Amino acid sequence: MQEVEALTRCPECKGEHLVRDYERAEIVCNDCGLVLDESLIDEGPEWRAFDSEQRESRERAGPPSTIMSHDKGLSTSIGWRNKDAYGRQIPHKSRAQIYRLRKWQHRIRTSKSGERSLAQGLTEINTMASKMSLPRHVRESAAVLYRKASVKSLVRGRSIDEVVAATLYAACRECEVPRTLDEIAQASAIDRKSIGRTYRTLVREVGLKLLPQNPRDYIPRFCNRLNLDMEVQRKAKDILELVEREELASGVAPSGVAAATIYIAATLCQKPVTQKEVAEVAGVTEVTIRNRYKRIAEAMGLTK
Predict the structure, then answer these.
(1) What's the pLDDT at 164?
(2) Mean model confidence pLDDT for the chain
(3) Is the dihedral of CA 83, 85, 88, 91 positive or negative?
(4) CA 148 → CA 57, 153, 210, distances in Å?
């Protein structure tokens, strides 16, 4: 127990003898026994590190647990640096033995086929998410879905890349980070049809309840890739409100509706872009944009 500096007084007896009890994580008045605070954090002694070796030798805890690791980051590992716990070099005659221990420890971590598949799948999720610049919460959602798919034996009989692509697409929809199937297919080298089929199986077996995608979610990203300013974005959202009122977006791909509204908004704001440029950014064909454009233009009274 360590006595606290007399900066505050006990509200009960007005005493100044306050004590930190690190064993119980409490601040207690030494005069009347009143508990002033609980769940106290032991901040420990202050120290500074001037290089990586000093930082590692003075650390008192490891990394936090993470869902992105097959063992949630709770297992131990033998480091690749030939040093012991005190930072001393391991003798040359013992390095061969340490090498064998390190190799077997790595094998034991994924001794079962299910663990190896899970570890490989989670690694692939992180790799694909990095290619697509997806945020961390999307990766964690995809990891949770992949674990559920593994429990349901959905990975068996399918390639790991196919299931990973489907879980990432489902995680993007669940987290409202819109990505099209074409973008997922391009990052995973799996064809769009296979990803869609596995995604539908995943939704059915895991019991996901996902809302339909909204074209509004695509507008900021498409405008940024086309170098269009906020004026065009606001105009596109205003046009999309009309589209939603007239129910022109029902039954069609949201990316195509978003592309058509951006094309119309850019034209009205006198910052025109070509249909080909919008189609390449949105991942749709020019015919799709023309068809959506005609319906929206008729509803807005732009056609003669």
Answers:
(1) 92
(2) 82
(3) negative
(4) 38, 9, 16
Q: Which of 226, 124, 217, 224 is nearest to 179 (CA)?
A: 217
Domain chopping of the chain, boundaries: 2-38, 113-206, 215-300
- The answer to whether 57 and 36 have CB atoms below 8 angstroms apart is no
**pTM to 2 decimals?**
0.66
Taking each helix axis from N to C terminus, what angle separates 254-268 and 275-282, rounded to the nearest 10 degrees? 150
Q: Output the six-digit token pair for 214.
A: 């909204």
259: nearest Cα among 236, 240, 278, 238: 278
The CATH class given to the 113-206 domain equals mainly alpha
Output phi, psi for 115, to 5 deg.
-70, -40
What CATH homologous superfamily does 215-300 map to? Cyclin-like (1.10.472.10)
Contact predicate 133/224, CB 8 Å: no
As a whole number of angstroms, the distance between CA 120 and CA 123 comes to: 5
Amino acid letter, residue 39: S
pLDDT single digits (tens) 63-106: 667 777 766 766 677 777 777 777 788 888 888 888 888 888 77
- The answer to whether 26 and 35 have CB atoms below 8 angstroms apart is yes
Cα separation values, 60 from 47, 97, 251, Å:
12, 27, 57
